[in-house]
Amino acid sequence: MPIAPSSDTVTLSLGSSSVVVALKGATVISYQHAGQERLFLSSKADIRTSDPNAIRGGVPICWPVFGPPPADNALYAKLKQHGFARTSVWKFDESQSKSSEEEVKAVFTLQPTEQIRAVWSLPFRLTYTVHLLPYSLRLSLNVQNPTDAVASLPFQALLHAYFRLPEGVLPPQTLVSPLENLAYNDKVTGEQKVNESRKVVDVDGPKGEVDRVYFRAPDELTIAYKGRTDSVKVTKNNLPDAVLWNPGPEKGKTIKDMHENGVESYICLEPGLTEPFQYLEAGESWHGDMEISFA
Ligand code: BG6
């Protein structure tokens, strides 16, 4: 079965590749390619739709905000960090999902529910398409402000990918490029719009912690590893920024849904639209995507 739905997940298979998408958050929780798992998932993550918490790992979708919501604006007052898309239960749209020898595609949608209306007053329609291709995985997010909306729809959007590191590789041995000459906000030190002077950035910082928002990052990024030749290619489209995050061992211990030493097994590289907010007028739509492949 190329597309196999269950009560909590939808599994896509193509040749020896497969993807599992949890209905909670439409979170991709597994991507197997060439016999290896490519994403990190905490063993303490609860993927069931009955559980209200975000899934620690995979590719959660941050929407309509990234990070803590803006203060001093009633619209965002009831939102939690990274918004509600990652904790809401999405609908699997079987009628739009398709499979062939070249691609298996599953479509998920999210529209306001009673629970969402309690924290967010504006109408919207999100469509998320997971494309499993022979050599890659493409994730496409579409945001629509309905034609009958009476206000514009402001949002940030981010695909918070947890990339599993190869066996024996730690975050400080992980290299991300090209980020040279980009401006970034350092969420560890609080510095804003710092210039990145390094050609290749290792995922290391004070006590191992890295939390940076790189603005206007190139659309093709590479994750490589010291002393190894394999790498991951992350291609993005219409997601101008990229967040690089790993909390380091000490802070990692304070994350309650993280298994012991789990933070040593991944880096997050998160293509997103963080600044400025995107505004959609009634009837307008926006689309951003990322693709993961390997060399
Ligand atoms: C990153 C943020 O995108 O997500 C970090 O830049 C944050 O500041 C991290 O700690 C994880 O967030 P959460 O809400 O899933 O614990």
Automatic annotation (TrEMBL):
<comment type="similarity">
    <text>Belongs to the glucose-6-phosphate 1-epimerase family.</text>
</comment>
<comment type="function">
    <text>Catalyzes the interconversion between the alpha and beta anomers from at least three hexose 6-phosphate sugars (Glc6P, Gal6P, and Man6P).</text>
</comment>
<feature type="binding site">
    <location>
        <position position="86"/>
    </location>
    <ligand>
        <name>substrate</name>
    </ligand>
</feature>
<dbReference type="GO" id="GO:0005737">
    <property type="term" value="C:cytoplasm"/>
</dbReference>
<dbReference type="InterPro" id="IPR014718">
    <property type="entry name" value="GH-type_carb-bd"/>
</dbReference>
<feature type="active site">
    <location>
        <position position="270"/>
    </location>
</feature>
<protein>
    <recommendedName>
        <fullName>Glucose-6-phosphate 1-epimerase</fullName>
        <ecNumber>5.1.3.15</ecNumber>
    </recommendedName>
</protein>
<dbReference type="InterPro" id="IPR011013">
    <property type="entry name" value="Gal_mutarotase_sf_dom"/>
</dbReference>
<dbReference type="Pfam" id="PF01263">
    <property type="entry name" value="Aldose_epim"/>
</dbReference>
<dbReference type="InterPro" id="IPR025532">
    <property type="entry name" value="G6P_1-epimerase"/>
</dbReference>
<dbReference type="InterPro" id="IPR008183">
    <property type="entry name" value="Aldose_1/G6P_1-epimerase"/>
</dbReference>
<feature type="binding site">
    <location>
        <position position="81"/>
    </location>
    <ligand>
        <name>substrate</name>
    </ligand>
</feature>
<dbReference type="GO" id="GO:0047938">
    <property type="term" value="F:glucose-6-phosphate 1-epimerase activity"/>
</dbReference>
<dbReference type="GO" id="GO:0030246">
    <property type="term" value="F:carbohydrate binding"/>
</dbReference>
<dbReference type="GO" id="GO:0005975">
    <property type="term" value="P:carbohydrate metabolic process"/>
</dbReference>
<feature type="binding site">
    <location>
        <position position="56"/>
    </location>
    <ligand>
        <name>substrate</name>
    </ligand>
</feature>
<feature type="active site">
    <location>
        <position position="160"/>
    </location>
</feature>
<keyword id="KW-0413">Isomerase</keyword>
